[in-house]
Design brief:
By secondary structure, this protein is α+β, with helices and mostly antiparallel strands. The protein has three domains: 94 residues, Rossmann fold (3-Layer(aba) Sandwich); 63 residues, ATP-grasp fold, A domain (Dna Ligase, domain 1), CATH 3.30.1490; 103 residues, D-amino Acid Aminotransferase, Chain A, domain 1, CATH 3.30.470. 32% of the residues lie in helices and 27% in strands. The chain is built from nine helices and 16 strands. The strands form four sheets. The chain has a five-stranded antiparallel beta sheet with strand order 14-13-12-15-16, with helices on both faces. Helix 1 packs across helix 9.
Amino acid sequence: MKIGILSRKPELYSTRRLLEAGNKRGHETQIINPLKCYMNITSHKPSIHYKGEKLEGYDAIIPRIGASVTFYGTAVVRQFEMMDVYSLNESVAISRSRDKLRSFQLLARSGIGLPVTGFAHSTQFTDDLINLVGGSPLVVKLLEGTQGIGVVLAETNKAAQSVIEAFRGLKANILVQEFIKESEATDIRCFVVGGKVVASMMRTGKKGEFRSNLHRGGKGVLVRITPEERSTATRAAKIMGLNVAGVDMLRSNHGPVIMEVNSSPGLEGIEKATSIDVAGMVIKYIEKNAAPGKTRTRGQG
């Protein structure tokens, strides 16, 4: 098979591992910077050009689209889909998961456990918004934030008011969420491939840090998840329409609650914590499922 990995940074662990796994299994695997692709959008013969040449003959692509380039990156994925190339995660699903508000609304509609979440445009009734999520302490999140950036713990109602008003003063869209104190600065990352949890780890934030992201100094260790947590992770990935996803959840007093469903989950933390060849599992899934016309949306939506 000929597989393209859409990634801007070939030096990243995840990109390198997918390249190694693809080559190891005998495939022609290439890294393609999506921002350097340019497209011919036509009715009958849509095409993608890269470094002066037309990209042809691909059986599958693996999108590793960073949050900051979602718009152009998903346009490139959509163009591949229009060319009948199988995409591991489809453009519509990537866009859906990147919109935190939309993804929470879809998960809530399907009955998935979530932290109590508020969203507002105006700061006129901030007190009521804070009360909606159970008062302080609470978490304020930028909708566009990633890797723990733009996430603030407000320990008092006054602090919460100040943070909300500051973010809204910058015209930023925010979510306000209840703080799951019992999780104690830990969360669980479940790596889902093809509707199954293939690996899971518990991430713990460094001392004094409530965010458990590995990029912020957190540590990941192998964890045994419950049947309910496994079911929640697979259902969340399915609702987003993602074949591969990193599902982040907290252990609350009322069961697992989803924090995020990531369409480009990193491999380094999960592989090192679990010693599982996750990259190899991703390539095996592509081998079983990649076929012309298999993409459900064909670039629609």
